[in-house]
Design brief:
Blueprint lengths: L1 H40 L9 H10 L9 H19 L19 H20 L6 H30 L4 H7 L8 H4 L1 H15 L17 H4 L2 H26 L6 H21 L5 H9 L1 H17 L1
Helix pairs in contact: 1-10, 1-11, 2-10, 3-4, 3-10, 4-5, 5-8, 5-12, 5-13, 8-13, 10-11
């Protein structure tokens, strides 16, 4: 009996390792595709699809003698731990034992907690960098995170009330049977609030406040280096793909195969890309005020919509 349970546990760990590898590689390829799309819009050629893998290999094998303190180097570790933890409790392919991860052991609130964990850990790491502008970067990042998490949390509360469960697998199961059962159709108000919050989560213009590509010489690619920078590059791909899978599960019916997953997640991602190439960057105060106004109001309306219409 004990041997059987241990064998099953090791099997799930192995399956999750495979899922982790696939999702990370997919995230890197999607990131390269998006960079090429943006480059084409701006009249440039863009990077090759192999460039993200080359960047990771190049930084991973570098070493440095610079030391900022243990918390500085734990920041990237916490960041990637948040990405791995988020993916661990999300079913990637609905109905697949191999790609369900540990979704039976964690619920939607645990997933949201892991989403916070990595970002807060990164803020602690940046705070020990000693850079005079690190506090500005932390304030920007945490302020925008707080702002976009409000409408996202309201949208999540709305669908939890709608489906009467915190299980992501059960939420996906309730959307099976055709596109007319997807949350985007049955609760379009919550989906709209969540997709507006998603614009802030991706960090593309006009909400690239904390990434600040125009100020990149003083950003994480300069302060973090060697293998720690490779952790950040890996997590950017992993966490980005994981968020796409989460939104697909919550609002767009999940996926029963990898082809369906790729099509749906790419279409979700393109929403942020289209907005990013069409609008210039907001100031910090503009971005934060935006999320606390229209998206938050729509999130509140989604709860009212569930209670008064769907109930």
């Amino acid at each position: 009996m004990i041997y059987a349970s241990m064998s099953e546990w090791f099997g799930r760990v192995g399956n999750f390792g495979l899922t982790l590898l696939i999702v990370t590689v997919y995230g890197l390829l999607v990131g390269a595709l998006i960079e090429r799309i943006i480059a084409k819009v701006q009249g440039r050629v863009g990077i090759p699809y192999s460039q993200p893998f080359i960047n990771i290999a190049k930084t991973f094998f570098k070493r440095t003698a610079v030391s900022h303190g243990i918390m500085f180097y734990l920041g990237p570790v916490f960041r990637i731990a948040g990405g791995i933890g988020t993916l661990a409790f999300i079913p990637v392919i609905y109905g697949s034992e191999m790609f369900s991860n540990f979704s039976m052991a964690g619920d939607l609130f645990l997933v949201i907690y892991f989403m916070f964990f990595g970002q807060l850990g990164m803020a602690l790491g940046a705070g020990e960098s000693g850079h005079p502008y690190s506090a500005i970067g932390i304030a920007r990042g945490l302020s925008q995170m707080t702002a976009y998490e409000v409408p996202f949390a309201l949208a999540v509360i709305s669908i939890v009330i709608q489906y009467d469960t915190l299980s992501i697998t059960e939420i996906v199961a309730a959307q099976q049977g055709g596109w007319q059962n997807w949350t985007v159709i049955t609760n379009w108000v919550a989906t709209l609030a969540a997709m507006l919050a998603f614009l802030g989560m991706t960090g593309y213009s006009p909400f690239d406040i904390f990434l600040a590509p125009q100020e990149i010489p003083i950003g994480p690619p300069t302060e973090f280096h060697s293998a720690y920078l490779s952790f950040l590059q890996i997590n950017r791909a992993l966490f980005g793909a994981t968020k796409l899978v989460l939104f697909m599960n919550l609002f767009f019916g999940g996926a029963t195969g990898w082809v369906e997953l790729m099509i749906k997640t790419l279409l979700i991602y393109m929403v942020a890309i289209v907005v990013g190439v069409a609008f210039p960057r907001f100031r910090v105060d503009q971005g934060i005020r935006f999320f606390f106004k229209i998206p938050t109001l729509i999130g509140i309306m989604s709860i009212v919509y569930v209670q008064m219409v769907l109930a």
